[in-house]
Amino acid sequence: MKHRIHPLLIAATVVTFLFLLGPLVVIIGAALSDTSFLTFPPQGLTLRWFSNIFEISAFTRTMGTSFMLAVGGTTLSMLIGIPAAYAMARYRVELPAFLGNVFVLPILIPEIVLGFSLMKSLAAGIGLPIMAALLIGHALLVLPYTVRVVGASLNSFDFSIEEAAVSLGCPRLKAFFIVVLPNIRAGIIAGFILAFITSLNDVSISIFLTGPGVSTLPIQLLAHMEQFFDPTIASVSVLLMGVTVAVMAVVERTLGLTFLTK
Amino acid sequence: MTQSLTLENITAHYGTTKVLEDLSLHIAEGELVSLLGSSGCGKTTTLRLVAGFLEPTSGAIRLGARDLTRLPAHSRDIGLVFQTYALFPHLTVRDNVGFGLKQRKIGGAERTRRVDEMIERVGLGALADRHPANLSGGQRQRVALARALVIDPPLLMFDEPLSNLDAKLRVDMRVEIRRLQQANGTTALYVTHDQEEAFSISDRVAIMKGGRIMQLDTPEVLYSRPANAFVADFVGFDNMVDMRVISDMGESVTAEMDGGAQIVLPKSQFTVPGKKFIFAARPDGLLVSAAPGAEGIPATLGLRTYIGRAYQYTCETPGGSVAANGPLSAPLESGANVTLVPQPEQCCLLPAE
Hints:
The structure holds 2 protein chains of 2 kinds.
Chain A: H1 7-32, H2 48-55, H3 57-90, H4 98-102, H5 105-108, H6 111-125, H7 130-155, H8 160-167, H9 172-183, H10 185-200, H11 206-209, H12 217-227, H13 232-254, H14 258-261
Chain B: E1 5-14, E2 17-27, E3 32-36, H1 43-51, E4 58-63, E5 66-67, E6 78-81, H2 93-103, H3 108-121, H4 137-149, E7 155-159, H5 167-184, E8 187-192, H6 195-201, E9 204-209, E10 212-217, H7 219-224, H8 229-234, E11 239-248, E12 252-257, E13 262-266, E14 276-281, E15 286-289, E16 297-306, E17 311-317, E18 320-326, E19 337-342, E20 347-351
Parallel strand pairs in B: 3-8, 3-9, 6-7, 7-8
Antiparallel strand pairs in B: 1-2, 1-4, 4-5, 9-10, 11-12, 11-14, 12-13, 14-20, 15-19, 16-17, 16-19, 17-18
Helix pairs in contact in B: 2-3, 2-4, 3-4
């Protein structure tokens, strides 16, 4: 049977892809431009703006900080988020319903308000070191993602499987590790990736919590842009994009991307 | 190894709602007892209490000489088969079956031998390396059964194990369950809402309602001599008529229903439980007869329906509306005046409530 696709559908698809991919093409083009200012289309081609990233110590230093923060903050949020999601799924009837919303609050509160209040309470209030405040801030920022994504996995988990393990002589805690965790693995990985990328790209929390000597890559990018309007900004953006693509590629290879949309 | 199970005066609550009230139950060694009732009757709660997933408010649970009441669930040593099978999705059939032995630190050759033997016994030898997702419903239930049996538990429990299977497979599986349970001589507690399923495989059945056992007896006794109106209704005594004794003539008793109709009940076939009682009958227990002079309850026929082995009529009697069956050979028309002749083996007398 011949399947005719409506021309409008084709047009809408093309426009959507242009809308999504167009800006990325512009950034990649600008990053390759052999000029000392940002421009598109690129005039001449060079990779020197990429090597330039690694020559500016502020970029390499903040890149390290950003990765540490993303890994640390996400891990911290997992340590809080997995038990929380487990409790809410397992004891759905016994626990009050509003509890689920509590963990989404960081998304609902304007990020700039969250950032400011964290600065007032963590940094200015109790005087935490910058790195500690950033870590807590990022953990809080990504907590909604980990709780929701892991929670979605747990909601489709049949808890009688856990009970079966217990009835066969496995203590509750051990059953959690050897029966529950392996079966919500996809949710944990998906949550980790979402949280990791969110943390890596965050500006509004970090801008309040960074301070003398400690900054993150996106904040450094902003600072750099205020002084120099050169293609390094574009090349750093491309690099961040590359990290995201690399993470996705690894996921696709190991698990298949479809599990993210489950 | 098999042990008896005893529940003594168990009361249980969900929050402030009482779900079981003063429930006592004894299952002898090697016996299979079913808990039968509609949802919310407390049958699953009872099973979960024995499994250790819930704690009773008061009362005691004993398995053989062991007191289970406050023992953590993983120390109870009970084989459990779930409605949803509850297989470990990330493990193969072999590892699913071996899980319990692994927890018991039984390893190496012995585990392999026992697991393989059990997989053979449930007829899944060819599928041992598959994951549960690649099995049919019936095969999954066999794995669940093997997984519960391989630990050689003193008690097996089944929580509606067949309700996710289609009708044909249900019959096969329940025979299989009964065969394996009897072969091992394992004490078993079986929870179901399906009367046919419970009656077909159980030594005794407890019919439950509102957190209490209404009657606990063999299927034969429950079917023919229910102890109260609830059980009678459950096993198909659709017609219940209030009666009072008006005369006792030694050999038989004459009783009258509201509206004045009288029936004579021979004592050889009926035990009258008191001055006032309930006369209960299945539709088959009231034979529609158009013969003049038949002895029974006078009635006027209403709607006639065909049920395969007989015609069923809704009948208006002085005591109310009842359902009665008449022979296929003589269909009768609506409005006919007939007599409903009690058939003692399909009737029973219950104490007034």
